[in-house]
Design a protein that fits this description.
Elements: E1 4-9, E2 18-21, E3 29-34, H1 54-57, E4 68-77, E5 82-89, E6 101-105, E7 113-116, H2 121-127, E8 129-135, H3 140-147, E9 154-160, E10 175-181, H4 185-205, E11 214-220, H5 229-238, E12 243-249, E13 264-266, H6 271-275, E14 282-288, H7 290-302, E15 310-314
Parallel strand pairs: 10-11, 10-14, 11-12, 12-13, 14-15
Antiparallel strand pairs: 1-3, 2-15, 4-5, 4-9, 5-8, 6-7, 6-9
Length: 316
């Protein structure tokens, strides 16, 4: 397979949608080699006193050159605070890898949004559809989505990001552990859907990339804030033993529904939950708020996960 080698300098703090893979010895100026997985590194302290906008935070990230028009063709409430958009894209040159984000351009609004894609590359290839799940905030792009966006609204998108899973047929099989906090599920759900597509292709055609098992750990305040939970349960049923999920809730006050009960644990994701998955052929993808990322990074180091097997993306 062909590889593109790109030189990128990373600075911290990063980012609204910045992916970081930590290497033990590399400097902050590293070679990014885009193949099945994305390699990047950073050194420094992850702190910021000044709120940066999306374009500023992601200035050093990979971006495609193409900007594509898109039309809103579906809007649903994924939760009380999250809207799910379906966007129709006619530009055949528009592509993305599972886990990436988009710059989101809105006519009449100068601020550019940055939202992780929550659908699979397969949906775009087959139907020309891309999906986003956006939590309500007063930030102009998110506020517009929740208060003004309507069917047939037109926007523009540009794909970017160094956090993705894109294995090729000749690559060695790996297992994945995906760990999500809150709306950090978005890029990991895209990866999970892509993995389901890979399993389906392998079962149907008998060739292509042979995917290992995938474990998803997903933490939120309560079950009403667990996005895509019905879809995730459906994937578990469709691919038993290949895709499994453990939901964690930290502030549950109501009764957990019967369908979810077998899969829900009250309390945070712990060392005990994760240590059984440590192996040389397991990759770890994490997305959530910075304190969660920092805590889990230390936890994984403590249980012997090699630092070059951990990928993460922080959101603010």
């Amino acid at each position: 397979m062909a590889h593109a080698t790109i030189y990128v300098g990373f600075t911290v703090p990063q980012l609204l949608r910045g992916a970081i893979r930590i290497f033990p010895t590399h400097s902050a100026l590293v070679v990014l080699r885009h193949s099945a997985f994305c390699y990047c590194t950073v050194n420094g302290t992850i702190k910021s006193k000044r709120k940066m906008d999306h374009l500023e935070r992601t200035a050093n990230n990979f971006r495609q050159e193409v900007i594509s028009q898109a039309k809103v063709c579906g809007i649903t409430n994924e939760s009380e605070t999250v809207k799910r958009l379906r966007l129709a894209i006619t530009n055949k040159d528009f592509t993305f890898k599972a886990g990436q984000w988009v710059d989101f351009f809105i006519p009449g609004i100068s601020v550019v949004g940055g939202f992780s894609i929550c659908s699979s590359p397969g949906l775009l290839e087959q139907e020309g559809i891309l999906e986003l799940a956006v939590k309500y905030t007063v930030h102009p792009p998110a506020h517009w989505i929740h208060t003004e966006c309507a069917l047939d609204s037109e926007v523009a998108l540009r794909v970017g990001g160094d956090f993705f899973f894109d294995p090729q047929p000749g690559d060695s099989p790996v297992k994945l552990v995906l760990i999500a906090g809150g709306v950090g599920i978005n890029p990991l759900f895209s990866i999970l859907l892509h993995i389901a597509d890979l399993h389906g292709y392998q079962e149907g055609k008998g060739n292509g990339y042979k995917m290992g098992t995938v474990k998803l750990y997903y933490s939120a305040k309560n079950t009403s804030e667990l996005l895509f939970k019905k879809n995730i349960l459906g994937l578990m049923n469709a691919f038993p033993g290949k895709i499994t999920c453990h939901f964690h809730v930290t502030q549950q006050s109501s009764q957990i529904c019967e369908e979810l009960q077998p899969h829900v644990t009250e309390g945070r994701i712990s060392e005990k939950d994760l240590e059984e998955h440590v192996s040389k052929d397991t990759l770890w993808y994490i997305c959530g708020p910075p304190p969660m990322i920092e805590s889990l990074s230390k936890l994984l180091a403590n249980i012997g996960v090699p630092r070059n097997c951990v990928f993460f993306e922080k959101w603010w």
